[in-house]
Amino acid sequence: MKKYILFFLLLSCGSEESRLADSYYQNKNYNKAIEYYTESLKLKPNDTQSLYRRGRSFEEIKQFQNAIKDYNKVLELDKENVNAILSLAINSLREKKYVDAELYAKKVIKINPDLHDAYYLLGRSQQYQGMFSDAVRSYQTSISLNSDFSESYYYLGLVYLKLKNDKNACKNFSISASLNNSEAKKLQKRYCY
User: Fold this and answer.
1) pTM recorded for the entire structure
2) In terms of CATH, what superfamily is 1-79?
């Protein structure tokens, strides 16, 4: 009986640590969130949610290598965790590892073909590799899945600008600007008036 009570107490403490960490994360106190996620993980080392959120906290304070370690640990435990894979795609883009970003995005699309973020990240990786027609298709798919995501319109506009298709570039900058993308508003003023 004592063993069960001790186990319950340890489990409750871990849950409380995780709840506190979530609260700190939501309030953008990332260092405290990391501290509490770390404590929670001492009790539940295979808690993919806490690992992922600690990784996101690391990312927010620009400790990217620690974030990547946590995302990879999540994938060791759950090979199809799309949040961890998308985070690795984002990190790959930031590190200018565009082929890696493309592979991560395609992996997510295989797991869940309805995530606009995966097509958006695929488009970004293709755009940076100079694969403009592929990028156009990826951004268009992202938009078809979420027509309120301004970034897809913005980057699609950039691709059309690169392809010297000013009409479609301006159309996409206009939509992105209407969704409150300040960068799109600047480009719209520069190229479309």
Assistant:
1) 0.87
2) Tetratricopeptide repeat domain (1.25.40.10)
Tell me the DSSP string of 86-104. Answer: HHHHHHHHHTT-HHHHHHH
- Cβ atoms of 129 and 101 closer than 8 Å: no
Tokens 């995530």 label which residue? 115
65 CB neighbour count, 10 Å cutoff: 8
Q: Along the 193 residues of the chain, how does pLDDT read in single tens digits?
A: 444 333 333 333 446 777 888 999 999 999 999 999 999 999 999 999 999 999 999 999 999 999 999 999 999 999 999 999 999 999 999 999 999 999 999 999 999 999 999 999 999 999 999 999 999 999 999 999 999 999 999 999 999 999 999 999 999 999 999 999 999 999 999 999 7
